[in-house]
Design a protein that fits this description.
four-stranded antiparallel sheet; four-stranded mixed sheet; alpha+beta
């Protein structure tokens, strides 16, 4: 069973914080046409919407409020959920990554929880979800250096490997990944996490042949 805890300092500044997690053995494929149809269908509700409208969704608003509570400008480092919706409202196509990451993005579009997917073999638990410290950074996927001070970050024995804005190159899901960790973060309590996890598991079983699945919710 995964050992994942939320630091007390995070709970003090963001009382509603909760993390849902999934671990599983998977087979990663570059693309699945049926899965992509589901992604496009989920994205359709945001097309033609403005970001002013989108920021009123509780899951997006609560993440922005959390960033402000931690001393961050949410327009400088946007949450992954807002960034995904923003790309759609701008009329841009979504990135096709691989079946695991595409499942993650699909569930994010359906629930608006910020999510992350990681190669579990490249992580050394226990994992702590805490506030990024002064001087901490990593190479974000396709984004260069991400300065982590004040951001909600996942940290293992090797250091930070993921956050609610951009995950690290170190732990990214690759074609050769055989074990994954997927997380969804709520900033207003467990709310619909109990719904999001079974949905994600079903998609992973269908599109990434997930096996040996374990799940949990941490507050």
């Amino acid at each position: 069973m995964l050992t994942l805890t939320i630091a007390n300092s995070m709970k003090i500044d963001v009382p509603g914080i909760a993390v849902g997690w999934i671990t599983a053995a998977v087979r990663v494929a570059e693309h699945d046409a049926e899965l992509w149809q589901e992604v496009e269908a989920a994205a359709a509700r945001f097309r033609g919407m403005t970001m002013e409208q989108a920021r009123k969704f509780p899951a997006i608003k609560s993440l922005r409020d959390a960033y402000k509570a931690l001393g961050n400008d949410p327009t400088r480092y946007r949450g992954a959920n807002e960034a995904l919706v923003r790309r759609i409202t701008q009329g841009k196509e979504l990135y096709r990554v691989n079946t695991v990451v595409d499942v993650n993005n699909l569930v994010t579009l359906e629930t608006l929880y910020s999510g992350g997917s990681f190669d579990f073999q490249r992580i050394e638990p226990p994992i702590t979800f805490r506030i990024g410290r002064l001087g901490e950074s990593y190479q974000g996927i396709g984004r260069g250096e991400i300065r982590l001070e004040g951001l909600p970050v996942f940290v293992d024995q090797l250091g930070p490997f993921g956050c609610t804005t951009s995950d690290s190159e170190r732990a990214m899901v690759r074609p050769e990944t055989t074990g994954m960790l997927m997380v969804f973060i709520s900033f207003r309590g467990p709310d619909r996490l109990e719904e999001a996890l079974p949905r994600a598991v079903g998609l992973l079983e269908r599109y990434a042949r997930a096996a040996g699945v374990e799940t949990g919710v941490v507050r």
